Amino acid sequence: MGKIKQASFVTSFAQYKEGSVPPLPEIALVGRSNVGKSSLINMLTGNSKLARISASPGKTRLINYFLIDKKYYLVDLPGYGFAKAPKSEQQKWGQMIDGYLKRSANLMDVFVLVDIRHRPSADDRMMVEWLRAFEVPFHVIATKADKVSRAQQQRLLMDIAFDLKIDMVRDIIVTSSEKKQGADRVIDLMEEICRYYYEGEEEEVTEEEFARDMLEEPAEE
Ligand SMILES: Nc1nc2c(ncn2[C@@H]2O[C@H](COP(=O)(O)OP(=O)(O)OP(=O)(O)O)[C@@H](O)[C@H]2O)c(=O)[nH]1
Ligand SMILES: [Mg+2]
Fold it and tell me: How much distance in Å is there from the Cα of 139 to the middle of ligand 2?
């Protein structure tokens, strides 16, 4: 059963730039603004203060890197579809997400988060289609499961699977950051994704190596 021992914030960018962080496998979180991306990171790491969350959408405005167990990065991206944001801001965020997904060489998997209560939006469907088209591996995570009853869950998941053209309802991982539900499954999956990157060999960066690489490639604001 997976558990994260160590997690820390590394850096954030307004614009993805290759080679800005020491190379390690990356798992990115995407989804509508307010869906619970940052909350999920906090639940997974058991640190409620690691990623900033907010009741109002549009909290995460940069690409945030979190180093997990010195082995991989969880990358928190700004949410899309935040209707109240000015058009220019929305465009900027769109470009940020797009630029990151297209250019990150170590991107291993994308977690697409959807609120279990709602049918996926046009943006959600577009995101999934885009990932399929570019053959980026992804998994769908349904958030806020505490907001619906167990009986409702199955039907809602079937709708989500249908909209996103996911064959198996059980492929959707159900989580609740509020009730700390689903963390084991997500962590096990992340471990599996990283094993694939390292192809069996256990590799970790030492603190010294990490600090040195960070110095060599100063992050730009
Ligand atoms: N009930 C419940 N509320 C949740 C859950 N996950 C997140 N929330 C709430 O939803 C709101 C948004 O959460 P965030 O984690 O900031 O969402 P986000 O996807 O990072 O949003 P952006 O940064 O704007 O893209 C906050 O008020 C959270 O407390 C959950 O599993 N259950
Ligand atoms: Mg956020």
Answer: 18
